[in-house]
Amino acid sequence: MDTRQRSIRIAMLPWLAHGHICPFIELAKALSKRNFYIYICSTPVNINSFKETISEKDSISIKIVELHLPNLPELPPHYHTTNGLPPHLMSTLKNALDMAKPSFFQILNTLKPDLVMYDFLQPWVPTMAASQNIPSVLFLTPGAAASCYLFHIGRKKLVSEYPFSAIYLRDHEYDRNRHMFEPTDDDGYTDTQRRVNGCIDGSSEIILIKTIRELEGKYMDFLSTLCDKRYVPVGPLVRAAETEHENSEVMKWLDSKQRCSTVLASFGSEYFLSKEEMEELAYGLELSKVNFLWVVRFPVGTKITLEESLPKGFLDRIGNRGKVVQGWAPQLRILQHSSIGGFVSHCGWSSVMEGLKLGIPIIAMPMHLDQPLNAKLVVDAGVGEEAVRDKNGNLDRQEVAKVIRKVVAEKTGQRLRKRAREYSEILKSNGAKEIDEVVEELLKLCRLTTRHDSTELLY
Predict the structure, then answer these.
(1) Is the pLDDT score of 2 beyond 50?
(2) Mean pLDDT of all residues in 393-418
C-alpha cells in the first residue's frame, strides 16, 4: 500500500533498551516503504549500537536524531541505555529520560512531525505532542497476553477477576517481579504502573502492539475493553536474517547435524544467566543427549572466562555433540537451519516471534519481566514447553534435560513442530496485511498539512 500523498513524518521515541528500539526500527522500515518519513530519536550510545542496522537504502526515509539526556554524576553517557546498566540505576535512567523533555520538545519544534510514536514509560510525550497539536500513538513492543495480565493488575483489578487462566505468575515469578506490583506512593500505584497508565490514556484513539491476531486476538480484544482504546497489531516485525559477519564455523558445524536434531540455546542481548543457572543449563544440555548450540553472553565488564563459567570438564565431555559460542551468533540464520529442532529461549517477545516466524518450537526458560507470561502463552498455544523452575525459582538440570528431549527427541515434539509450522505459514500468508492496516489507521490520525523541512538535528 502506498499513501499516494506527500511523505508523512513520524517522530519515534522508543524506550532506551535494545528490545524496544529494534521493533521500532523494523516498524520504521516497513512504514518507510509506504511513503512515511521516519525520525528515530535515541541517545548517542544507543545510536552507535543500531545505526548500522539501517541500510543505505533505508536511510533515505529513516533518519536518526540524537536525544541528549542530562549529565548526571551517577549516570554518565555510556549508561544512557539499559544495555550494561547496573540494575540499581534503572530508575535513574527513567528519570533522566524525563529530564530530557526540553531536548525532545526542541526536536518536535524543529522537525514538526505529523505524528509522534512513543513507548510505554514516557507519559509526558503525548502531553507534549498535544501541546503542539500533533497526534501521538503508543507502540507496545511486548505481546498482548503479557500486557493483558500486567495492565489488568496495573488498573487496580483483582487477579481473581482475570479471565485467562493459562496466563499467570507463579509465586516465585511474582516475587522476582515484585517491584512491578508493590505501590511506591500513597495512590497505590507503582512508578511503572503510573507511567504505563499515562501512556495508554494519552494515545490517540489506537494503540499499536507487536503481535498477530491469530495468536493473541482474545487478549487484544480484552485490552481494548480494559483500556478503552483499540489495539491494532503490527505483525511480528522479525528482522531480516543476517547476511554479513556470518559465523561460518557455526554454520558448518550445523551442516554436520541431522534434520531437527539440534537445539539453539540463546537468551537475548541484555539478559544473563547467573553462575548457578549456567551450571544447571550446562548439565541439562549434557544430560539431554541432544545436539546443541549454546550462545553465551556475559555482562559488560565481566572478567570471568567461558571455561570458568562452565562445569569442569564440560566441553571435553560433550565433544562434537555440542558447541558453545561466546558473544554474538547469527540467531536468525541459525534458526533457519534444517538441523534446528528447538529453541531454548528466555522468551523475550522478539525471540518468541522469531521462533514462530521460522516454525521452531520453543523450550521456555523465562527469567523476569514479561518473559514468564510469554512462556505461558507459548505452552498454551501449543508451540513449546517450559522448563519449570522449582518453588524457589531455581533451574533444575533434570527438568531442563527432560523438556529438551520432549521437544526434540520424543514424539511430543512432532506435535509442537507441526503447530509452530502452522503459525509460520500464517505469518507468511499474512504478508504485509498488518502493516497495511496500520497505515490506514495512521492516515486517519495524521493532519496532512504542509510542514517545513528541517535537517539540522539529523545525525
Answers:
(1) no
(2) 94
SS3 state at 410: coil
Please give the positions annotated as active site.
Answer: 20, 119
Read off the C-alpha cell for 443: 492516515
Q: How far is CA 459 from CA 67, 281, 302, 306, in A?
A: 10, 42, 32, 37
Strand, coil or helix: what is 64?
strand
Backbone Cα Rg of the chain: 22
Q: What is the identity of the amino acid at 459?
A: Y
3-state secondary structure of 194: helix
The x, y and z cell numbers of residue 255, run together, are 551442516
Least confident of 82-86, 145-149, 391-395: 82-86
User: What is the pTM for the complete model shown?
Assistant: 0.92
Distance CA 42, CA 28 (A): 14
The enclosing H or E element of 85 equals: none
Q: Compute the mean pLDDT over every residue in the chain, rounded to the nearest whole number.
A: 90
DSSP notation for 323-379 = EEEES---HHHHHHSTTEEEEEE---HHHHHHHHHTT--EEE---STTHHHHHHHHH
* Distance in angstroms (rounded) separating the CA atoms of residues 107 and 111: 6
C-alpha cell at 240: 531480516
